[in-house]
Amino acid sequence: MKHQMQISENVWQVGGTEVTAPEDAAAYLVHMGNAAALVDAGCGDATRALIKNIRRVLPDDVPITHLLLTHCHFDHTGGAEEVRVHLGCKIVAHRLDAAYLEAADSHATAATWYGRRMQPLRIDIKLDGPMEIIPVGNGEITACHCPGHSPGSVVYLADIDKQKILFGQDIHGPLHPSLHSDRSDYQKSLRFIMDLEADILCEGHFGIFRGREEVRKFIKAFMQ
């Protein structure tokens, strides 16, 4: 199992199936000068490994100020509280999915898919608008509400290392009634995400896609 994978000068994959634990969705570290952000936290089975991977690449004097959750599902959020305890960061999620996390809804968060029970997770910053800017260090990350896979699914976009990097996570779905998925919203969100014209897509389960054409090709595979 590899420890981490460098995506650009200041972006790494530090968690995921082949990096921390088999059930973990990908987790990405974004270093923006004097601070950093982490995108998603995995199931929580290998949080110590996740933290070690972060420490291998991030200078000790650079704090992680934000944990940016793409949506409420357990493979992305199960480890969020332990990450907050270790790093002292604020947890960010869209308010529509924050409701499921704070209520510990094991069905809407898909914890039951993993044979688990979701524990209540307090969200520090609740996103509400279609697009919001999150200052991180001496840079910023744009959160875009992209419902469909879940009501409060979010993608995060950062202009970093002279590239437009998109943390899209579960662009592939799936859609399921227990997740409160909406197919019409999902298709609209796919078109919106494709129009962002990202240079690099960091997905939650399918890896890294480089170049605008490769990014578009992957997104279009799920469009009707």
Structure, described:
The longest helix is centred in the C-terminal third of the chain and has 13 residues, at 183-195. The protein has helices spanning 47-57, 74-77, 80-87, 95-102, 183-195, 212-220; strands spanning 5-8, 11-15, 27-31, 36-39, 64-68, 90-94, 125-127, 131-136, 139-145, 154-160, 163-169, 200-203, 208-210. β1 (5-8) and β2 form a beta hairpin. It is of the alpha/beta class and 224 residues long. The model has no long low-confidence stretch (mean pLDDT 96). The strands form 2 sheets. The chain has a 7-stranded mixed sheet. The protein has a 6-stranded mixed sheet with strand order 8-9-10-11-12-13.
Q: Please report the total strand number as a whole number.
A: 13
Largest sheet features: 7 strands, mixed
Helical content, roughly?
A: 10-25%
Distance between the termini: 36 Å
Shape: globular
Mean pLDDT over the full residue set: 96
Order of helices and strands: EEEEHEHHEHEEEEEHEEH
Strand content: 25-35%
Number of helices: 6
Contiguous low-pLDDT stretches (5 residues minimum) are: none
Rounded radius of gyration (Å)? 16 Å
Structural class: alpha/beta
Widest sheet, order of strands: 1-2-3-4-5-6-7
Secondary structure blueprint with pairings:
Blueprint: E1 5-8, E2 11-15, E3 27-31, E4 36-39, H1 47-57, E5 64-68, H2 74-77, H3 80-87, E6 90-94, H4 95-102, E7 125-127, E8 131-136, E9 139-145, E10 154-160, E11 163-169, H5 183-195, E12 200-203, E13 208-210, H6 212-220
Parallel strand pairs: 4-5, 5-6, 6-7, 11-12
Antiparallel strand pairs: 1-2, 2-3, 3-4, 8-9, 9-10, 10-11, 12-13
Helix pairs in contact: 5-6
